Amino acid sequence: AAAGLSYVGAYVINTYKSYDNFLQDKYALLPAVIIICVAAVMFAIGLIGCCATFRESRVGLGLFLAIILVIFIAEVSAFVLGFVYREKVKTDVQGTMRSVFEKYDGKNPESTVVDYLQERLHCCGVKNYSDWTTTQWFNSTGNNSVPQSCCQQEAKNCTGHLDQPQEL
């Protein structure tokens, strides 16, 4: 379990590099760091449990049980906090995403990240393609279209024009 959690934490940190323009708050990596720390603690606790079982130590097994109970309480607390603050996180991420979409010009690094995100997640805009109508890029191009990264992969002749929303 500790090895699995370590992998998940490392994967999240590695994936963060692709989306760091959207998550400007550096505390966004905090969950991944916590996961890696929990993995290290789980390894130590597992070692205590194995040694206590091997030696048939009542004190060691009691310590193991107490640690497991503390971890269970921490997990329940984390679940409750995640449930309570989910809307705040959603609002913060959407606000940051909108600010990155505002900087889109098709050439800068933010534009590359936006295109990558839309192609990778098969989406267009923060909520949908109409989000592009309020951006500076949309108004400056004057061609009533969204970036090519909004096009569906199956659409062969997609130009990003809003008069063909079924291709977006």
UniProtKB/TrEMBL annotation:
Pfam families to which the protein is assigned, alphabetical: Tetraspanin
Subcellular location(s) of the protein: Membrane
Major localisation: membrane
Transmembrane segments: 28-54, 61-85
SUPFAM superfamilies xref list: Tetraspanin
Record-level GO cellular component terms: plasma membrane
Lipid bilayer topology: Multi-pass membrane protein
Record's keyword annotation contains Transcription: no
Keyword flag Transmembrane: yes
Keywords from the named record: Membrane, Transmembrane, Transmembrane helix
PANTHER family in the record: TETRASPANIN, TETRASPANIN-36
Descriptive protein name: TSN36 protein
UniProt source species: Donacobius atricapilla
